[in-house]
Amino acid sequence: MSSNIIIVGCGRVGSQLAITLSESGNNVCIIDRDAKAFSKLGQGFNGSSIEGVGFDESTLTRAGIEECDCLAAVTNLDNANLMIAEVASRLHSVPQVIARLSNPDHERTYEQLGIDYVCGTSLVAEEIFAKISSGIGFHIDTFGEYELLRFSLNLKDNDMESIRASQLEKAHDIRLITFARADGSGSSIPDEDSVLTHGDSVVACVRHELLPSFSRWIQS
């Protein structure tokens, strides 16, 4: 299922992210204050681009902020990314907002404001892509190299009717925190004997690099 994604910043990270997400079938709109930056996208880019400031209301409206599933603020300025993320999450209630962080000294500010972020490494575009691909709206928080996710368990596409919690944990090196039955019959903290069924709501802790392989267990 395609998602509506806004990317602010068409530098190396933003352009790479826009191309990858667009090629994955998503509706992508990228914003940059310098129209020349869009040349990085190449002629094959099938998303849209808007010249403007990423925290400007009129620019965000033109980009489709009201129907946006995810916004990634990836300019090279931490303060700008912080402002963009705040506008998207607080004013427009975008389900998933991710900001690029270049200066680790600003990490505490991002955490205090509850902003999901990826620190500016050479793999920042890949990390943001992994977060978005893990499921729009499933992400809860980031703890170092781990992601805390809430999702509905997908067993039908894995040709299974049920699976033990311990089996899922061992096979994918994850930790299940809690689960709630799809039929509303109750919730519990899983133990070795807990059996999960299709559609159960699950909260799990997953490492960044395991998100792509684990995504097949997430019901879209």
Give the SSE layout.
Elements: E1 4-8, H1 12-23, E2 27-32, E3 48-51, H2 57-63, E4 70-73, H3 78-91, E5 96-101, H4 107-112, E6 116-119, H5 124-133, E7 139-143, E8 146-152, E9 162-164, H6 165-172, E10 175-180, E11 187-188, E12 195-197, E13 201-207, H7 211-214
Q: Nutshell version of this structure?
A:
The protein has 220 residues and is α/β, with parallel strands linked by helices.
Explain this structure.
- α1 (12-23) runs parallel beside α5 (124-133).
- With 220 residues, the chain is an alpha/beta fold.
- The protein is built from 7 helices and 13 strands.
- The chain has 2 domains: 4-133, 3-Layer(aba) Sandwich (Rossmann fold), CATH 3.40.50.720; 149-217, Alpha-Beta Plaits, CATH 3.30.70.1450.
- The strands form 3 sheets. A 6-stranded parallel β-sheet has the order 3-2-1-4-5-6, with helices on both faces.
**Shape estimate:** elongated
Give the fraction of residues assigned to helices: 25-40%
User: Based on DSSP secondary structure assignment, what is the total number of beta strands?
Assistant: 13
Reading the helices and strands in chain order gives EHEEHEHEHEHEEEHEEEEH
Summed over residues and divided by their number, the pLDDT gives a mean of: 86
Give the N-terminus to C-terminus distance in angstroms. Answer: 7 Å
Strand order of the largest sheet: 3-2-1-4-5-6
* Major sheet details: 6 strands, parallel
